[in-house]
Each structure stands twice: as C-alpha cells, then as structure tokens.
Amino acid sequence: MIEVSGLTKRFGDTVAVNNLSFAVNKGEVLGFLGPNGAGKSTTMKMISGFLTPDHGIVKINGIDIEHEPIKAKSCLGYLPEGMPLYGDMPVHSFLAFVGRIRSIRPSDLAARIAAVVEVVQLGDVLTESIASLSKGYKRRVGIAQALLHDPPALVLDEPTDGLDPNQKDQVRSLIENIARSKAIILSTHILDEVEAVCSRVIIINRGEIVVDSEPSTLATRSSKHNTVHLSLFDIDPETAKSQLRQIEGIRCVQYKEKENSFELIPMDGQSIVHSVWQKMTSNGWKVKTISEQGGRLDDVFRQLTRNKN
Fold it and tell me: Could you give the number of structural domains in the chain?
C-alpha cells in the first residue's frame, strides 16, 4: 500500500502541492494526472523520498518514509521522469549495480536480472552501453531497475515516454500483469493509457485534487457523454437540423459538412439514441449510420482544469 496524508510542498511563495491525501492499495493502478505545473512530479518525488515534504506523511507498506527511509524505499520501485542513467555502463552491469544497492542476495541476483530482462525485453542490448541506446530502450532499462527487487509498490512517472506504439502496448500489458500483486501509481499525460490500464484516476490542478474516481465513472462527466453521430441519405442538412433540434433532451445539433454527418449532443449526458431513432422512423428518413459515443477522459480533463491555471 501507498499512503499519502496531508502532503504539502512549497518553493518560495509557490505552493506546488497543497494538502494531498490518498491511498493506493494492492491490486490498484492509480492514474495520476494534471496539466503541466500541477504538482505531479513533485508529488512523485515526495512519495519516493527524493524530496522532503514541508508537511504531511508518506507511508510505503505501512512504513513512514521520513522516519525509516531505507526500510520504506526497499518496498518501492521508482521510475522518475527523464530518469538519469549511467551512460558508460552496459545494461547488464547497471542492473547488477542496482541489484547490489538494493541488497539483493548474490545468489538471487542473476535470476532477478534474467526475470526483468525477459519481462521488459532487454535481451538484445544487455552488453551495450546505456548511452548508445535509443530513448525507448533507455526507458525500458529504467523500468527494469524499478522492478528488479520485486517491490510491493511502484511509482512510474511517464513509463511509456519515448516508446513506439508496439513498445507502449508491451509496457501497458506488463503493468496490467504485475498490478494484481502491487500498488501502482502511474503519472502520465496519455489519457488512452489511463483508460487502458488504470483502475482509478486522480486529477490534480495547482497542487490540489480536483477529482478521484474510476475512469469509467469519470468519463460519464464528459460534456459529450452519449453524443449521437448520425448520417442520412438524401436530406437537406438545414431541414434535418431543424427537425433534430425538436428532440427532447438534445442540447446541441452540429452538422459536419466534410463528413456529411450530424453530431447530437445531449443535455446532462442522458441517452438520446432511442429518441433520435424514433424521429428517424416517424419522418421516414433513411439512415446511413447511427452510433452513440461514450464520454472522453480528455474532455473531462479539460473541463476540470481549463479555467484554473
């Protein structure tokens, strides 16, 4: 478990993080989101012990990271944003070095390195220097060192930064597979990533939590939740718009000339697709396509953070 209580950090007159409190349990993947400057990386650094908070407590697996830092950090794997690596070291030597720092027994170290190398797919570059690797491979080395000691808690700051689409899918699958036995905080700006792997989302803005919810529940707060997309055969767009605006529960009707289609946005996210279909039937309109779109996290993110920076 990762427990954060009353976490606060100031830099001069700027309050970077203001009284944050939350907990992440085993089996949870928490997506930690916010606009640039919201306090995400500062929070990650305090949770991992890289920064000392001005106020508040961080516990990893029940251990206070300020009072027992070595014991608490032994329970945590941390991938910082833009992680610095020892460029002159070959990948295998670096992982062995990290393993010794983590006090992994010499008799177990080779097996642990082999396990993370297989999981993160570093076998082809084990003897190459870190400086010679692509950004994607460097990121994988960073993930490998975070997993090496098999910690019960992980803090991953932008884990797929610099990876190509296939590598991103591999890392997401990895996170899904290990999530059953770990508490994971994943800081990212990629909202597709949140929907793919996170069981819970916290959005912060100006150092404060503005929402804490499951992704599916949060998506229903989108201003376009249950929007209907409609295309019709042989009908004047202005006539159709006039008729469609009469449907109860519709907030807005937009015609997209390029696609020759309509976007029908409901009031308060209510489902209107049945009412739209009834209108089509009663008017005798020929429908090409009709579909209902769920809410989008990027829309909700903008709603919650747009006017607060």
Answer: 2
